[in-house]
């Protein structure tokens, strides 16, 4: 159990402290750059742990798996009270993961934040996740400040001179500012650049507990340069304690946070514009922009904390306007249903601190129900007033953006077959907490399939699920996608009893429409008129097609383009169910379909309901989809990762040679002093042992990271072998399907 400090004072200040004395931010970084170690000093400052343990305890890594692996897996939220320049400040801090597996946790934390501390390792510099996290933050209108950690390594391990350390730090600052110039909103490209001279850059060592900004150096020393040189002097003397006492890391960070990160009132004026996609000419929008605690209640759930022992879910998020109270009746904007919380309060690592009212400008925590992370809510009476806008998709938030998508899967099955439903419930809970993962039931095999961004994410999910349900797990496998390259044949098929018929064709879905689906601009549970308007105005779809979407599953769309077909409504749900089954496991290798548009152009439905059951409709529709797919140049696509590598120049040739053997393509190389930064794209299937081989090729001196890059067509010379390998693994016949396999369902019109 976490010891909550100043509980009563926090309760009062949550409700009464001026907005100007609040900060809500996330600490983000590449893996192993020192976020949780750094956070220890901010927690020690308020007495949540001993200063002697700060830098070693990693208090925000509360989970046993995090402690065992020495990495952050889950975002941790904590409320801290500080006094600075005679004023009290309430800081709501999110300590986020740095591994690509858990980038979704970062995306959700950033949605609830007004700013970030971007933490960069002084030796490794700006790495893959550093850039990804900065991009996500700037996209969400979060102002950055920079903390350059592990400067002790430049001094002790690399024996750099003061001038060389300054050059290294300047290089990191320059790289960060170049990324800010690239990704920041236009109005903030210059204002948000970080600067040591202006105090928005801190330098230090979380391991040794010291740090400074230009402002803290000026306070301690008449000549800031002499203060900087004193660091090198104390390392020569071995007097780290002097650095801790005279240049305490928490003081430098706190000053930077308070002076350079925005308060909620400042931040929401521009952040709401970026994340709200509803109408703006109403009291709700105005209340959010003004952080009006007396206005309509609007909030968003950005994290689901599942207690590691009790497995009790707690919903965590941000109040944008109004006040959340213990008796509030909430209307969920996506679920279109009402819920009442059981408890409300704020989160202190693993404990919920009860607070009876939480006004706008705060993060919150509540229990009593479960919904997917990313759900937004308003008070029920607000929903009733704006139901027309809600139904028309003109009242709500942009979906939380994610940097990765599922490319790896594992099948899981309960050891006791009677636990199949319980397994589904537990898996659903964990994928609600992390929507970058997904799962579905493969009915033919009788197993659940978990999909995630990489093997580690799936491994963690599997361990969580197995704590509730004993399961058997297969090895992780790379997930491919099946697409088509042209319009397939328009085909008539018939039901097994020959009494029903359907005519349809498949063609590629436009890339920009698929991207809009991925971003949530177009989705299945959307007002059809609103969706049709977007498709017509933004993507040039004919109105008759845009209005008649039956289903969207993944980035695949099913359209009813029939006219005058009698009794089609009777089989409509069967057709949709068959389409979903088809795109979840397609034809070439039963891999998921991607970017497919299926259009039904005609049908005949028998008058007798006894002849139009699922057993008749499924084979007919599936055969039509399969035949058209097979005549549309079907192609296998594979996930490709971007790999960032920093390595001494003498290893450049060996690293590039290794990447090329892995079917990698070099995107760019940049020289900096004696190091080279190599950016390449490599198929995910080739990265299973890449980390080990990179270390071997560089004698352990390569720093590297990776992230999802794109889906790309598998080389034609490899497609057949890969398809056969997948079919063997799935127990499918080792032959490519053909139109003849479905010939018995073809209807020849007389």
Give structural notes.
By secondary structure, this protein is an alpha+beta fold. It has 25 helices and 32 strands. It has an eight-stranded antiparallel sheet. Strands 2-3-1-4-5-6-7 form a seven-stranded mixed sheet, sandwiched between helices. Strands 18, 19, 20, 21 and 22 form a five-stranded antiparallel sheet that branches. A hairpin with a 2-residue loop joins strand 2 (76-84) and strand 3 (87-95). The radius of gyration is 28 Å and the shape is globular. The N and C termini lie far apart (76 Å). The mean pLDDT is 89.
Number of helices: 25
How many angstroms does the end-to-end distance come to?
76 Å
Shape, principal axes of CA atoms: globular
Quick check: average pLDDT?
89
Secondary-structure class: alpha+beta
Low-confidence spans: none
Main sheet record: 8 strands, antiparallel
Helix content percent band:
25-40%
Percent strand equals 25-35%
Question: How many beta-strand runs?
Answer: 32
- State Rg: 28 Å
- In the sheet with the most strands, the strands line up as 12-11-17-8-9-16-13-14
């Amino acid at each position: 159990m976490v010891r909550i400090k100043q509980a009563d004072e926090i309760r009062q200040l949550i409700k009464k402290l001026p907005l100007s004395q609040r900060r809500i931010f996330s600490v983000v970084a590449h893996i192993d750059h020192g976020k949780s170690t750094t956070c220890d000093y901010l927690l020690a400052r308020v007495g949540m742990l001993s200063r002697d343990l700060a830098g070693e305890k990693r208090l925000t890594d509360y989970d046993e798996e995090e402690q065992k692996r020495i990495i952050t897996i889950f975002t941790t939220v904590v409320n801290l009270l500080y006094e600075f320049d005679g004023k009290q400040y309430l800081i709501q801090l999110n300590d986020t993961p740095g591994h690509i597996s858990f980038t979704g946790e970062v995306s959700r934390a950033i949605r609830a934040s007004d700013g970030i501390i971007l933490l960069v390792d002084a030796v490794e510099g700006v790495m893959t996740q550093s850039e990804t996290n900065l991009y996500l933050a700037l996209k969400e209108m979060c102002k950055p400040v920079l903390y350059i950690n592990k400067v002790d390594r430049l001094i002790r391990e690399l024996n750099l001179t003061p001038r060389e350390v300054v050059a290294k730090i300047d290089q990191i600052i320059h790289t960060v500012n170049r990324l800010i110039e690239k990704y920041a909103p236009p109005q903030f490209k210059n204002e948000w650049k970080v600067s040591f001279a202006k105090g928005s850059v801190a330098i230090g060592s979380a391991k040794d507990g010291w740090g400074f900004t230009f402002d803290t150096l000026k306070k301690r020393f008449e000549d800031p340069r002499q203060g900087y040189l004193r660091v090198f002097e104390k390392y020569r003397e071995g007097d780290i304690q002097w650095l801790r006492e005279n240049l305490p890391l928490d003081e430098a960070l706190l000053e930077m946070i308070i002076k350079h990160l925005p308060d909620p009132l400042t931040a929401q004026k521009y952040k709401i514009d970026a994340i709200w996609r509803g109408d703006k000419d109403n009291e709700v929008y105005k209340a959010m922009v003004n952080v009006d605690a007396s206005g309509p209640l609007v909030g968003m759930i950005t994290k689901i904390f599942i207690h590691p022992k009790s497995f009790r879910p707690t919903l965590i998020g941000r109040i944008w306007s109004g006040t959340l109270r213990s008796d509030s009746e909430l209307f969920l904007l996506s679920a279109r249903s009402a819920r009442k919380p059981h408890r409300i309060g704020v989160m202190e690592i693993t404990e919920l601190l009860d607070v009876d009212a939480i006004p706008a400008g705060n993060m919150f925590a509540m229990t009593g129900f479960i919904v997917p992370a990313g759900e937004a809510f308003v008070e029920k009476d607000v929903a009733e007033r704006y139901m027309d806008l809600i139904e028309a998709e003109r009242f709500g938030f942009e979906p939380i953006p994610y940097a990765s998508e599922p490319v790896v899967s594992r099948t899981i099955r309960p050891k006791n077959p009677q636990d199949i439903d319980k397994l589904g419930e537990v898996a659903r809970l964990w994928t609600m907490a992390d929507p970058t993962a997904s799962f579905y039931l493969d009915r033919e095999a009788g197993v659940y399939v978990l999909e995630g961004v990489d093997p580690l994410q799936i491994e963690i999910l599997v361990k969580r699920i197995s704590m509730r349900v004993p399961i058997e797990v297969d090895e992780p496998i790379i997930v491919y996608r099946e697409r088509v390259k042209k319009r397939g044949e328009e085909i008539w098929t018939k039901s097994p009893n020959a009494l029903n018929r359907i005519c349809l064709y498949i063609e590629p879905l436009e890339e920009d429409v698929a991207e809009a689906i991925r971003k949530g601009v177009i989705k299945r549970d959307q007002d059809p008129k609103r969706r049709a308007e977007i498709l017509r105005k933004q993507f040039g779809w004919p109105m008759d097609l845009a209005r008649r979407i039956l289903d969207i599953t993944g980035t695949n769309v099913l359209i009813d383009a029939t006219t005058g077909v009698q009794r089609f409504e009777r089989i409509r749900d069967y057709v949709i169910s068959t389409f979903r089954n088809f795109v979840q496991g397609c034809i070439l290798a039963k891999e998921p379909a991607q970017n497919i548009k299926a259009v039904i152009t005609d049908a005949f439905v028998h008058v007798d309901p006894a002849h139009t059951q699922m057993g008749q409709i499924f084979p007919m529709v599936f055969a039509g989809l399969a035949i058209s797919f097979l005549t549309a140049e079907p192609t296998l696509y594979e996930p490709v990762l971007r790999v960032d590598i920093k390595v001494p120049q003498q290893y450049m040739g060996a690293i590039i040679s290794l990447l090329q053997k892995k079917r990698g393509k070099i995107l760019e190389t940049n020289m900096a002093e004696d190091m080279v930064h190599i950016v390449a794209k490599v198929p995910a299937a080739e990265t299973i042992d890449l980390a080990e081989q990179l270390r071997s090729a560089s004698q352990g001196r390569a720093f590297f990271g990776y992230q999802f890059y794109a889906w790309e067509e598998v080389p034609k010379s490899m497609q057949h072998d890969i398809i056969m390998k997948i079919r063997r693994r799935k127990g499918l016949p080792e032959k490519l399907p053909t139109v003849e396999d479905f010939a018995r369902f073809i209807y020849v019109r007389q």
